[in-house]
Amino acid sequence: MESSDKLIFERQKVSIILAGILLMILGAFLTGFFWGYRRAANDVQIEIVKTSFADQISYAGLPQTTDDQEQNTIKPVENVIVDEVLTAESKKYYAELIGFGRLKPAQLFADKMEQKGYNVLIKKRTSKTGKGKLVSWYQAVTDEYSDKQALEQLLEAIKQTERLQDIKIKSI
What we know:
about 170 residues
């Protein structure tokens, strides 16, 4: 009978050891699962912030008007024609080409454009992120032109060589 008692005791030890191993495997699986889930959530959050920053950059290039401003700028047809004739002579135009998050790539782009014969300036811009943090970025813009058609011809050449899209012409 003593040998059967030892056998039962050995079976209990084996059962406890197997249960411990299974618990450790389950713990490792759960730890890995939640660690991976957290990492994936962080990656998604980083991608959202990048997309938000890109949206803010493109939004910064759009003219900002409110309904009150638009109502105040409505003029009779006669005055608009006169104003267009007067301001067409004094208007200057430039184009916003592309934005960069850091100065070095922006400067490399400007140097590349300079080698191709295009005068490009780098302007420092600031935007607010979705969390309210101020972010600096750099925008490549053309020189100022008084002739809008000449600027448009330049932009067509730049679009073809640099494969840029959605270039906005701004007036000063």
